[in-house]
Design a protein that fits this description.
Blueprint lengths: L3 H13 L4 H13 L1 H21 L2 H7 L1
Protein name: Zf-HC2 domain-containing protein
InterPro entries: Znf_put
Length: about 60
């Protein structure tokens, strides 16, 4: 069974590369039972979205507003 430290590492790796089926299953199982890790995963996704929006050229950012 995956522990929280391993889950945090896997959540980070998930943003950079596709996970194997075994990794996905282990991560899903852990985050289903661990609310703090589930929240951490959501926060990581939000931070990634915010950083992408921040790095867009200004003219593209203004088109959405």
């Amino acid at each position: 069974m995956m522990n929280c430290k391993q889950a945090a590492q896997m959540l980070s790796e998930k943003l950079d590369r596709p996970l194997s089926a075994k990794e996905k299953m282990a991560l899903t199982l852990h985050t289903t039972m661990c609310p703090p890790c589930r929240l951490f995963g959501k926060q990581m996704g939000s931070l990634r979205d915010l950083s992408k929006a921040y790095t867009k050229p200004k003219d593209q950012h203004e088109e959405k507003n």
